[in-house]
Amino acid sequence: MNSDQLLADLNWILTCPSLCNDERVLELTDLVKPEPGLNLSPVKEFLESNAWHRVGYYFESFIDALLRGSEPIHNLRHSIQVFEGKRTLGELDFIFDRNKLPSGLITTHLEVALKYYLYYEPEHASGSHFMGPNATDNFEKKWEKLARKQLPFGREHFPEIEQSVAIVKGQIFYHPAQEKPPHFPEPMNPEHRKGVWIRESELDWFSRFDEKEITGAILPKPFWFGPPLEGISIPALVQEMRLHFAERHHPLLVSVIKKDRDSVTELERLFVVSDRWPDD
Predict the structure, then answer these.
(1) Which of 180, 238, 261, 272 is most exposed by smallest CB count within 10 Å?
(2) Which string of b and e fits 63-94 if b means at least 16 CB within 10 Å?
(3) pLDDT tens column, 143-181
């Protein structure tokens, strides 16, 4: 994997606002102080594993690298499975000790989550307006699981844990023809990172990008964070998407970029979904 892409993905993680406002949800800077030259070995090792295509695990590997490279963090454990006899009850993402003045070290259980949701103005059968590209997932369902199951699970099985917290990053996508919601569900952060979603029949939306220097790319899993380093022409991108939806129905995450000599600027990030979404 190109190291420049890894750095772009790391920068996206560090700069992305938290998706949730809650006392149990921390910003990354509350836990770690990233230093130049961070060792990304955990990320590279993950990309060589059988799970390399899992976006959530890719995100977790960056958190692993950041925790390992931070002086306030000690005795780090990752992916801790909990058993009852031969039965697996669950897994904790991280347990570690961290410096927290004036009380010294505090044993912390950390859960991490990366989620993408599309705002759908008609209320879905699930009762949510914020659904994942796979509409069986939604924001309220994820928060309920995190707050009521995953965070309490650590203290139930590890009495040394003094604090259970989460890092939740992600992005909410809005259809250009729909009004923004008048309010957000608790505890969604109103200042979340925003994008656009459209349907396969609305690909003419891309005609607004008529400059030759503007290109785009379909983002392959697991590289759904930073903008791609290279793109193809917008007409070629649209044709690639038309071919995809002629044969398949799963959503595509797309980045529109403008590249100059020294940098890549992402102009838009969007999901393109089938005309049958969210009922497909």
Answers:
(1) 261
(2) bbbbbbbbeebeeeebeeeeeeeeeeeeebbb
(3) 999 999 999 999 999 999 999 999 999 999 999 999 999
- Residue 222 domain flag: no
Q: Is residue 223 part of a domain?
A: no
Contacts of 255 (CB under 8 A, 6+ apart): 216, 217, 219, 227, 228, 231, 266, 268, 269
Residue numbers of the domain that contains 83 = 3-195
Query: Domain for residue 238, yes or no?
Result: no
Asked if residue 209 is part of any domain, the answer here is no
**What does the pLDDT look like over 223-267, one tens digit per residue?**
999 999 999 999 999 999 999 999 999 999 999 999 988 889 999
Please confirm whether the linkage preceding 222 is cis (ω < 30° from 0): yes
The predicted model scores a pTM of: 0.95
Q: What total of structural domains would you count in the chain?
A: 1
